């Protein structure tokens, strides 16, 4: 996968841009302008970004403008549908669903983003180091990765978070280190392997540049676009994983709420109080779909030559 | 004889991010049966696009206008279905890269049989027999067994033979060859060209030979069309073109080619600048910015391809308003069209070789690769001797070249030296220090100042995420140069290699291939090395740009007293630039000595065959040469019957 | 996977070579299977220790009315190899030898046999997972091929938009949405067309009635799994096919005289199927994870639901059995992927 991009104001040729059909650009086009222009052309990606931004806004402002706190119980309004009082309705204990959804969205987002950041960093370092240093480092790392893929990690995750008592930070940490990092690390390792063979890496070696400096200066920046895309996809994966976990009761626990927990709690009264399902489900779906659209748009903007066409 | 193909005013344009690209802007020619048209041009000239347009294989978003008449039928406007009846049947094509031209999951036999059965209904037996016959015809041994092989079991040369067999399968009237030998070794190239000639004789077909190599043109073409910026700028029979060139671009092109058969070192004529972008071209001569004899009138209107009288009576057309002023031998009013450059003389050249200090000495260098088996714990089951004990030395101010074909071990030799691999039974001595004496990273880094490398691929050798200034200063920082001094040096170096220091904050993508190679050279020179190692530094560049870089290397050698260790497969470049040459075959030096000696008086049969295979860009010489082929089993040459 | 470029069978006629190739293939697969077996054994053992770290069988007996004495609890748990009064190593050894010698995976804290549970639940899950996998693959590949040859046209754009949405709907949302739709449909027509709970009804006999009953129960969860799963294969197949459509050998095929459609169907498709086959094999474990949630929602008593029950009931032996099951599925997936590559891709041969 090459991350080389030819400046469009400079490139001319058609089937085979030969070495002599470019010339030094008279006006330097910043990389970022180029990326944003490409991104903006993808309407789905723009829509995704807007929806995501709105959701984040809702997560932040929602709890502030809600009429009720999410733990408050309104005994006069048990299991009521959406009304002017309770905009999203209430559950059978009297919690205001609007507040719950807002707080739940907040919690889901926090977990997902922090998990994805952690996963991206760990997988990037592990993947590139394994590819660059080769030999035993590589073999052992790959062994660990393949092994982690064999263990049913969702099981381990469920076991551990059940015991953790619902503290979201612990859950997030486990998600990073137990289930999150090894698959992206493998993908990065594959890419870094191909980069390792590039001549500019050999050139740096022949110039006497130290190994670690090569990893930092040459390998990591060139997988940068992959890391960005991985990060956004990681958010989606983390949301889905945490939702599943909380839905089953292993993840976030009362009084803390997440969207998955809400759906789980509302599942028994699905037919009688469907709003308990609709609102959290809508928030959840909008979150995942918008992030996926953003990831897609980023992939097209940063890596137009990339072969992957989706979360394969 | 009637025309097999008649093209009139062919034009192709594409939409792209930057605007509409006019890849082809008005090609016209006629081609008769049994004749060969050579289309020459560099990258971006539109020659490949022309051939794809004729076959109807362009992308859907390509707009094609004009007229292509094949055997009296108009091809433009036909549907894919109608064209597919003609493709592979009346017209067939041989592509450039044999390694990707065949489907990896089907056998050779299946692909050949498909070529036959898609046009005629043959019984399985008949199709099989005919396929075996075709394989025999193209020179593939044991054809029955080979029918069941897969493409990856064949070498590049053999795969190209299969592609030619497929092209010949239905006795076509027109065979289009798009750079069929560019990806192949020199000796294989000669064989494939022989084969195409044979195919033409067998089928009586007309051939279009597209290439950037003037030697190939001299050998194969009856008529030549030189393309530049999407248009033909000169069209003439082959002798006319080479000896009575009338268009400045063609003159420059011929002058930029190093000759393998000329002993005196004539400086190559580089054509300054780059070909224009094919977007929104102004109505002027596209070559105007690079032409040494440009006038104001050249920029007012694009010159048409008009007949020019050369005294020989043949039809010769050139797109230059000064064509009638130009005389034979590339002269205008007695003065060469391209200014003659001074060959830089190095003061060291006057000193005999033995008296100059040694910059690099290699004694008995060996390298074997183990063949490993096993999934987790690998065990050795055999060895490959990539380098079998080579020794040589390079003196100050001297250029040493190692030539060989793929698999000879020449690149491995270079990399062994650069990796400073300790030798068990030999030595590598760089500027006086032996690699066996390196016991710490510090000493190694010190030693690396004296030897630097320039790579083949100008795109891959520079990190696309670093600015030019960063790239050139990286070796300086690796040896601990302070920042200001490094910046000063960067400007100095860019000047030295002919680049504008103001562009040092740009990224490599903004530069052309030739410029990127100059950046690579600047980087290599930054630590003031004593010897520069070059791995095929010009093979990825266009001919006219290549000349500029070769001249640059010559200049730098003279100015800075450098030594070069060169690896190349292009013997003409080697003849031009090297002082000493070693011919490498399967890990060994089969010949080693002064460059003139080796080229004029080759001793080893392999060298003789190698020299014989290189096409010389002069049709008179090329077509009358006696060529020889190397026989690996007997290690001797045998003559090729023309 | 350590495979080497194909080596020619030197000198022999083709049919002997084929036999040779099949033998080496089988040897290779056996080696791989053993490797995976080792990993599964290690993974299961590690899970055993982890399970003891995070689960406590005692909690089944805590808070009972009347409360049980310590002695009573230990006497109940010890024979089941679930008492923490016995050293961990001893417990582990008893468990391990039980499996190796008698294929006995132990009992739950309340005495139920793990073997029995797994034996019954395995097939329930298999019913769901198999059907979902096949449908996902077929739908994904078909859509991928269809949209690739109509790139950028309306059909492609609609397909892509739909897929990117369905791919990212969490299984929980999808499953419940389908339940609501099905109930709506049931109510609207007044007939119970689809069942939203359970995998079979009691008291149904005869071949056709049983078949229809199974389908009525199977449809909804399968739809849920397929809807969120097909898009991954769709995108992969599409992009691979597009890459191959632009490949040189497809151009050669057209230059031979095949029309564009023929060249794509015959040459590009075959080559692009290879990576898709491997991907499909690897999705088997993913579908199992999805099945966990689906079984919970649709109340199917399969391995997925068992997974949750064992954790909530602190059933150590059960949890470990589920872990082993998951590991085996992954191994099967990986081996199938290897087989697919070796069978479909002639460039790859095992040495």
From TrEMBL, chain B:
Source organism superkingdom: Bacteria
Official protein name in the record: ABC transporter ATP-binding protein
One cellular component (GO) term of this entry: plasma membrane
NCBIfam families to which the protein is assigned, alphabetical: oligo_HPY, PRK10419.1, PRK11308.1
GO terms of molecular function: ATP binding; ATP hydrolysis activity
Organism (species): Microbacterium sp. A8/3-1
Chain ranges of the ABC transporter domain: 7-254, 360-611
Membrane disposition: Peripheral membrane protein
PANTHER family linked: DIPEPTIDE TRANSPORT ATP-BINDING PROTEIN DPPD, OLIGOPEPTIDE TRANSPORT ATP-BINDING PROTEIN APPD
Keywords assigned: ATP-binding, Cell membrane, Membrane, Nucleotide-binding, Transport
InterPro entries per record: AAA+_ATPase, ABC_Ni/Peptide_Import, ABC_transporter-like_ATP-bd, ABC_transporter-like_CS, Oligopep_ABC_C, P-loop_NTPase
Keyword presence, Nucleotide-binding: yes
PROSITE patterns, per the entry: ABC_TRANSPORTER_1, ABC_TRANSPORTER_2
């Amino acid at each position: 996968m090459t991350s080389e991009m030819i400046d469009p104001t400079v490139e001319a040729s058609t089937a085979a841009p030969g070495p002599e059909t470019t010339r030094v650009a008279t006006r330097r086009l910043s990389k970022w302008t180029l990326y944003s222009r490409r991104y903006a052309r993808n309407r789905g990606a723009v829509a995704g970004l807007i929806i995501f931004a709105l959701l984040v806004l809702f997560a932040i402002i929602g709890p502030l403008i809600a009429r009720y706190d999410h733990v408050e119980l309104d005994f006069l309004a048990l299991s009521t549908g959406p009304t002017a009082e309770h905009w999203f309705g209430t559950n059978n204990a009297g919690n205001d669903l609007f507040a719950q959804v807002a707080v739940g969205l907040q919690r889901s987002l926090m977990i997902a983003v922090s998990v994805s950041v952690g996963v991206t960093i760990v997988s990037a370092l592990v993947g590139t180091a394994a590819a660059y240093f080769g030999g035993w480092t590589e073999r052992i790392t790959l062994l660990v990765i393949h092994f982690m893929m064999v263990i049913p990690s969702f099981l381990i995750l469920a076991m551990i978070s059940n015991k953790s008592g619902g503290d979201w930070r612990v859950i997030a940490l486990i998600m990073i280190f137990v289930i999150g990092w090894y698959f992206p690390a493998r993908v990065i390792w594959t890419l870094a392997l191909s980069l390792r063979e590039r001549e500019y890496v050999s050139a740096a070696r022949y110039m006497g540049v130290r190994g670690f400096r090569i990893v930092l200066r040459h390998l990591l920046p060139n997988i940068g676009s992959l890391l960005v895309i991985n990060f956004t996809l990681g958010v989606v994966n983390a949301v889905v994983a945490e939702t599943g976990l909380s839905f089953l009761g292993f993840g976030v626990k009362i009084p803390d709420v997440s969207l998955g927990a809400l759906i789980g709690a509302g599942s028994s009264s699905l037919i009688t109080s469907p709003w308990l399902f609709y609102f959290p489900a809508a928030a959840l779906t909008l979150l995942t779909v918008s992030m996926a659209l953003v990831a897609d748009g980023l992939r097209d903007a940063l890596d137009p030559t990339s072969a992957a066409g989706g979360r394969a | 004889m009637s025309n097999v193909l008649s093209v009139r005013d062919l034009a192709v344009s594409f939409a792209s991010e930057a605007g509409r690209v006019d890849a082809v802007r008005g090609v016209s020619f006629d081609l008769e049966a049994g004749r060969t048209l050579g289309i020459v041009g560099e990258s971006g000239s539109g020659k490949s696009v022309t051939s794809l347009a004729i076959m109807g294989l362009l992308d859907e978003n390509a707009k094609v206008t004009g007229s292509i008449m094949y055997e009296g039928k108009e091809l433009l406007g036909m549907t894919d279905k109608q064209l597919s009846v003609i493709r592979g049947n009346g017209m067939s094509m041989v592509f450039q890269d044999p390694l990707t031209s065949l489907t990896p999951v089907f056998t050779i036999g299946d692909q050949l049989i498909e070529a036959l059965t898609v046009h005629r209904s043959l019984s399985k037996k008949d199709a099989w027999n005919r396929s075996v016959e075709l394989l025999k015809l193209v020179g593939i041994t044991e054809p029955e067994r080979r029918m069941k092989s897969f493409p990856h079991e064949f070498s590049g040369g053999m795969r190209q033979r299969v592609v030619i067999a497929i092209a010949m399968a239905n006795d076509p009237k027109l065979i289009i060859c798009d750079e069929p030998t560019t990806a192949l070794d020199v000796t294989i190239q000669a064989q494939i060209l022989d084969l195409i000639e044979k195919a033409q004789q067998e089928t009586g077909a007309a051939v279009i030979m597209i290439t950037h190599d003037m030697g190939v043109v001299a050998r194969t073409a009856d008529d030549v069309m030189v393309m530049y910026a999407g248009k033909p700028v000169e069209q003439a029979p082959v002798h006319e073109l080479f000896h009575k060139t009338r268009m400045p671009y063609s003159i420059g092109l011929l002058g930029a080619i190093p000759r393998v058969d000329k002993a005196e070192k004539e400086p190559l004529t580089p054509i300054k600048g780059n070909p224009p972008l094919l977007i929104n071209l102004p109505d002027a001569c596209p070559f105007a910015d690079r032409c040494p004899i440009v006038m104001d009138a050249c920029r007012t209107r694009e010159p048409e391809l008009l007949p020019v009288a050369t005294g020989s009576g043949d039809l010769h057309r050139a797109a230059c308003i000064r064509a009638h002023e130009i005389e034979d031998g590339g002269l205008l009013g007695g003065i060469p069209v391209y200014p003659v450059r001074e060959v830089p003389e190095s003061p060291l050249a006057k000193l005999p070789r033995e008296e100059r200090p040694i910059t690099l000495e290699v004694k008995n260098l060996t390298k074997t690769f183990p063949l490993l088996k096993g999934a987790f714990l690998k065990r050795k089951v055999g060895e490959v001797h990539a380098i079998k004990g080579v020794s040589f030395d390079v003196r100050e101010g001297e250029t040493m070249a190692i030539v060989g074909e793929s698999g000879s071990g020449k690149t491995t030799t270079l990399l062994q030296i650069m990796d400073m691999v300790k030798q068990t039974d030999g030595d590598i001595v760089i500027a006086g220090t032996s690699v066996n004496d390196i016991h710490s990273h510090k000493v190694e880094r010190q030693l690396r100042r004296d030897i630097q490398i320039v790579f083949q691929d100008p795109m891959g050798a520079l990190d696309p995420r670093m600015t030019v200034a960063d790239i050139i200063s990286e070796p300086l920082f690796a040896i601990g140069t302070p920042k200001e001094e490094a910046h000063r040096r960067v400007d100095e170096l860019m000047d030295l290699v002919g680049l504008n220091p103001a562009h040092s904050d740009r990224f490599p993508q903004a530069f052309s291939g030739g410029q990127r190679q100059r950046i690579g050279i600047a980087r290599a020179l930054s630590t003031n090395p004593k010897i520069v190692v070059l791995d095929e530094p010009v093979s990825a560049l266009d001919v006219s740009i290549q000349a500029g870089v070769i001249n640059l290397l010559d200049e730098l050698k003279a100015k800075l007293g450098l030594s070069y260790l060169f690896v190349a497969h292009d013997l003409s470049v080697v003849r031009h630039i090297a002082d000493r040459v070693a011919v490498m075959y399967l890990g060994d030096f089969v010949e080693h000595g002064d460059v003139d000696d080796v080229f004029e008086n080759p001793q080893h049969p392999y060298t003789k065959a190698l020299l014989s295979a290189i096409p010389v860009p002069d049709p008179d010489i090329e077509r009358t040469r006696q060529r020889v082929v190397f026989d690996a089993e007997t290690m001797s040459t045998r003559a090729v019957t023309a | 996977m350590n495979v080497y470029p194909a080596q020619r069978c030197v000198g022999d006629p083709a049919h002997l070579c084929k036999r040779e190739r099949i033998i080496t293939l089988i040897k290779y697969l056996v080696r791989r299977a053993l490797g995976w077996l080792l990993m599964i054994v290690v993974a299961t053992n590690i899970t055993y220790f982890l399970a003891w770290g995070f689960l406590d069988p005692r909690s089944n007996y805590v808070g009972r009315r009347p409360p049980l004495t310590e002695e009573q609890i230990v006497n109940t748990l010890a024979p089941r190899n679930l008492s923490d009064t016995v050293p961990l190593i001893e417990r582990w050894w008893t468990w391990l030898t039980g499996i190796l010698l008698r294929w006995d995976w132990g009992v739950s804290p309340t005495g139920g046999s793990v073997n029995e549970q797994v034996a019954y639940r395995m097939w329930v899950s298999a019913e769901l997972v198999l059907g979902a996998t096949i449908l996902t693959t077929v739908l994904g590949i078909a859509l991928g091929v269809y949209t690739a040859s109509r790139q950028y046209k309306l059909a492609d754009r609609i397909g892509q938009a739909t897929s990117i949405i369905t791919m990212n709907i969490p299984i929980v949302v999808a499953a419940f949405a389908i339940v609501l739709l099905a109930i709506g449909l049931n109510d609207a027509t007044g007939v119970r067309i689809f069942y939203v709970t359970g995998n079979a009804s009691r008291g149904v006999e005869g071949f056709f009635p049983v078949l229809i009953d199974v389908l009525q129960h199977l449809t909804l969860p399968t739809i849920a799994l397929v809807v969120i799963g097909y898009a991954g294969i769709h995108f992969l197949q599409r992009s691979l096919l597009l890459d191959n459509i632009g490949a040189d050998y497809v151009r050669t095929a057209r230059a031979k005289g095949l029309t564009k459609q023929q060249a794509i169907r015959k040459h590009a498709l075959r080559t692009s199927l290879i990576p898709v086959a491997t991907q499909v094999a690897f999705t088997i474990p993913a579908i199992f994870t999805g099945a966990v949630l689906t079984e919970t929602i649709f109340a199917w008593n399969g391995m997925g639901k068992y997974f949750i029950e064992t954790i909530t009931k602190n059933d150590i032996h059960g949890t470990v059995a589920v872990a082993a099951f998951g590991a085996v599925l992954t191994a099967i997936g990986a081996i199938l992927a290897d087989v697919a590559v070796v069978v479909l891709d002639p460039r790859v041969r095992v040495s």
